[in-house]
Design a protein that fits this description.
- The structure is a single chain.
- This protein is about 50% helix and about 20% strand.
- The chain has about 475 residues and is α+β, with helices and mostly antiparallel strands.
- It has helices at about 5-25, 50, 70-85, 115-125, 155-160, 195-205, 245-255, 275-300, 305-325, 340-365, 370-405, 410-415, 420-450; strands spanning about 25-30, 35-40, 45, 55-60, 90-95, 100-105, 130-135, 140-145, 150-155, 160-165, 170-180, 185-195, 215, 220-225, 235-240, 265-270, 335.
- The longest helix has about 35 residues, at about 370-405.
- The chain has a 4-stranded antiparallel beta sheet. A 4-stranded antiparallel beta sheet has the order 10-7-13-14.
- The protein folds into 3 domains: about 5-45 and about 275-465, Up-down Bundle (Multidrug efflux transporter AcrB transmembrane fold), CATH 1.20.1640; about 55-130 and about 265-270, Alpha-Beta Plaits (2-Layer Sandwich); about 130-260, Gyrase A, domain 2.
- It is elongated and about 90 Å long.
- A hairpin with a 5-residue loop joins strand 8 and strand 9.
- It has 13 helices and 17 strands.
């Protein structure tokens, strides 16, 4: 067996404990009445409608003329963009074309105090005004929940000179093209303008050639491309080293801003939670008790590998909550529902199983007469593929659930939109938990086992399931 340095056990264990503490409590400072959050913890999780309740609202166009189905779909797209941009995945969204209505349900914020539904829906029902403006001057610069910089409120010439509005854009879509300068494949956002938009844009691209024309959604800048050529045919491309997801997201935002009417709120009401805060507290206590019992079981049955398993399970649980709360800048925060909690529990069960399989294999090798190092190496090798096969199938299922019931809503016409947020939440937490199982239940467990076995006090085979001498 290739030895692992002795300090590795303590380094990995300390990193797991730090992750567990910060993912649970976050890192915050208090300045008077203001709280500065540097790292989000469990208290920053936005709970789903089934746990914390939420709001139901009905929107209609503020016009006496009957809206077309395309216009209703555009309004629905705006609401969906605003929900997903706030990382709200537990929502229900319906359209009633006959009565020109859009019905939406979404959960309260995690720090909601007033529980006023009218205030909660203002962000969704406000008209999304898409504008193309001269330059890219802005007033304020903040950091979004995803860690990216957000530029807000145009100023100077950017505030004064509006070149195009959302109604001038027929369609925006993400495409893959070949760069004329480098020949490399790249993702772009292609625009198709209306007749009036074509004329305005032709004049603007001539005036602002080699200058910036920025794109704004309400008062937030969503792109600032430079004009590379005079465009007279009403068809343009926005380049910017996009990934496929980034190009698609920008196209969706531009499409969502092309709304020809304002939305008004016809009705709204509060949705009561199925569980509530008391039940959430009971689940927390039950979870702590369950983890304590599992820890005792692992220690009694598997001894030293059981102790190592406790560390790895702590890391897996911490990673699951960190991926939901917005702990990592590169992973958006997430709405946690009851099925989402079930996904975490199921993945923890898979983590316990992975550690038991490894510990049992090591024990079996010891009883066949192998040396301690040989038993650990053979136990790790023999257990890996059993763990891999079981976990990879669960990952495939989780990805299918997220693809079908996620923002793409591939089969929502069949199962109905009410199932989308709940099932997507289950798939997401299950996927993160299984990834955590590979990181901690496989990699970290093996590193810590090989590291601690180098110490003299940990060389007894009895500590790994062998006979006491």
């Amino acid at each position: 067996m290739k030895r692992v340095a002795k300090p590795v056990f303590f380094i990995v264990a300390l990193l797991i404990l730090v992750l567990t503490f910060t993912a649970t409590f976050g890192v915050k400072t208090q300045n008077g009445d203001n709280t500065n959050t540097y790292i989000k913890g469990v208290s920053d999780i936005r709970w789903g409608i089934d746990i914390n309740g939420g709001v139901e609202a009905t929107f209609s166009p503020a016009t006496t003329t009957k809206a077309t189905n395309a216009q209703i779909d555009s309004a629905k797209s705006i609401i969906e963009v605003r929900l997903t941009s706030s990382h709200i995945t537990d929502y229900e969204l319906y359209t009633d074309y006959n009565n020109d209505r859009i019905i939406v349900r979404f959960p309260w914020k995690n720090d909601e105090k007033n529980f006023d539904p009218e205030t909660a829906i203002q962000e969704l029902s406000a008209t999304a005004l898409l504008t193309f403006r001269q330059g890219d001057s802005y007033t304020t610069e903040t950091t979004g929940s995803d860690g990216e910089t957000v530029y807000k409120t145009p100023k100077d010439e950017t505030a004064k000179n509006i070149i195009l509005q959302g109604s001038d854009v027929k369609q925006a879509k993400a495409e893959m093209t070949q760069s004329q300068s480098t020949g490399a494949t790249q993702y772009v956002v292609s625009l198709e303008l209306s007749d009036s938009g074509t004329k305005k844009f032709a004049a603007a691209t001539k005036t602002y050639l080699n200058k910036v024309i920025s794109i704004w959604m309400d008062d937030v800048r969503i792109s600032n491309p430079t004009v590379n050529a005079v465009i007279t045919d009403g068809k343009a491309e926005i380049e910017g080293s996009f990934t496929a997801a980034e190009a698609s997201a920008l196209a969706n935002k531009i499409n969502a801003g092309a709304l020809p009417f304002k939305l008004t709120t016809k009705s709204f009401n509060t949705i009561s939670p199925q569980l509530g805060a008391d039940s959430l507290q009971a689940m927390l206590i039950a979870g702590i008790i369950a983890f304590a019992l599992i820890s005792v079981f692992m220690l009694v049955i598997f001894r030293l590998p059981g102790l190592i398993a406790i560390f790895s399970l702590l890391g897996q649980i911490a990673l699951s909550f960190a991926a939901v709360s917005g702990y990592f800048n590169f992973i958006n925060s997430f709405t946690l529902t009851l099925p989402g909690i079930a996904g975490i529990i199921l993945s923890i069960g898979m983590g316990v199983d992975a550690n038991i399989i490894t510990a049992c294999r090591i024990k079996e090798e010891i009883w066949t007469g192998k040396t301690l190092d040989g038993a650990i190496q053979r136990g790790d090798d023999n257990s890996f593929w059993a763990i891999f096969d079981g976990n990879i199938t669960v990952i495939i299922v989780a990805l299918i659930l997220m693809g079908v019931f996620g923002p793409s809503n591939i089969l929502s016409f069949w199962f109905g939109p009410s199932t989308t947020g709940s099932i997507y939440s289950f798939g997401y937490t299950l996927l993160i938990g299984i990834v955590g199982n590979f990181v901690f239940g496989v990699t970290a467990t093996r590193l810590m086992t090989k590291s601690i076995s180098g110490f003299k006090f940990a060389r007894s085979k009895w500590l790994y399931g062998g006979a006491r001498k």
